[in-house]
Amino acid sequence: MATVDRGVWLAPEGLPAADIAALGPRLEGLGYSTLWVGETFGRDPFALLAHVGAKTSTLNVATGIANIYNRHPGVMLQGANTVAEQTGGRMTLGLGVSSPAIVNKVRGIEYDKPLSFLRSYLDVMEGALYTSVKPADPVPVVLAALGPKMLELAAERTAGAHPYNTSPEHTAMAREVMGPDAGLYVEQKVMLTDDPVLARETGAKVLKFYSRAPGYRNAWLRMGFTEEDIDGLSEKLVDALVAWGDVDAIEARLAEHAEAGATHICIQPLHPEHGVGVIDDEVLAALAPGGAS
After folding, report:
1. In angstroms, rounded to a whole number, what is the distance separating the alpha carbons of residues 173 and 116?
2. Does some domain include residue 57?
3. With 0-12 CB in 10 A as exposed, 13-18 as middle and 19+ as buried, what is 146?
4. 133: domain range?
5. I need a labelling partner for 240 at 20 to 30 A (CA). Which of 102, 131, 133, 193 fits?
6. Residue spans of alpha helices (H) in 146-195
7. How confident is the model at residue 1 (pLDDT cuts 50, 70, 90)?
8. Do 112 and 160 meet the contact criterion of CB atoms below 8 Å apart?
9. CA 11 to CA 89: how far, in whole Å?
10. For the segment 47-89, what is each residue's pLDDT rounded down to a tens digit?
11. Is residue 214 part of a domain?
């Protein structure tokens, strides 16, 4: 059975900063390689990751993802290089186009031609001026990618792709599109519960926001789901995107991603009943690469 590097993806906006900083050493001690944090309307991800990085010594930190419409490419590079220098190179820059619901409807920023915008963004960022002490090595960049064209861009221009809300079947497709050498940093939602009703209700609540986003809808349609599956957040859809059950059942799903070609799996622990916002320490310990502690 293939084994891959394992990290944790969190949306810790409801936690005080001190609790997030304390979580860093906890993840480090459990053997996780990387902490990924998203960006919506809460904390600045670079400031947050620098805070975590200062409390850890081996844990890598990563944006999953930083929104390219929010920042000029030069500003994005400044943030990534600053964290990388402060952490001794423990920074990965996950970039993405996010969703029109966030970029256009809330931020009021034009959202148009995301693929070509991201391609041009990478061009500008690669040539951006940076006058401070640089990190010893360039910060690895990965792209939030779901469809074939974005996956191709990730393989062509960056260290790899960071698919989110996908299945092992999507991982296999992504590996085929990207070839054997590109990194594939897959997010997988996990929930430690044997109650199917609770698992599916909680999973559906978490996925509801994403079901309105065109990028995810199109990806799920390509994965074989119907409009009815998406609009109704069907059991079939939730079960494909959220790995729930006992530890063996969740580990089996993670193994499927590994066999399909993932090079890194970042679990996103969902708390039964609460979903996101409450960290389930039990599942973090149960799925820890270094064993529970």
Report:
1. 22
2. yes
3. buried
4. 5-195+241-286
5. 102
6. 148-157, 168-178
7. very low
8. no
9. 23
10. 999 999 999 999 999 999 999 999 999 999 999 999 999 999 9
11. no
Supply the DSSP symbol for 61: E
188 contact partners, CB below 8 Å, separation of at least 6: 243, 253, 254, 257, 265, 266, 267, 268
Look-up: residue for tokens 């480090």?
28
With bands split at pLDDT 50, 70 and 90, how would you rate the model's confidence at 205?
Answer: very high
Q: Is residue 205 part of a domain?
A: no
* Mean pLDDT on 167-183: 98
CB 243 within 8 A of CB 187: no
DSSP H or E segment with residue 5: strand 5-10
Query: How does DSSP classify residue 211?
Result: G
Question: Which pTM does this prediction carry?
Answer: 0.95
CATH assignment at residue 256: 3.20.20.30
Inside any domain, residue 121: yes
Strands (E), 55-196: 60-63, 66-67, 91-96, 141-143, 160-161, 183-192
Give the whole-angstrom CA distance, residue 58 versus residue 289.
14
Kindly state the tokens that stand for 263. Answer: 């090079």
Angstrom distance (rounded) from CA 257 to CA 235: 20
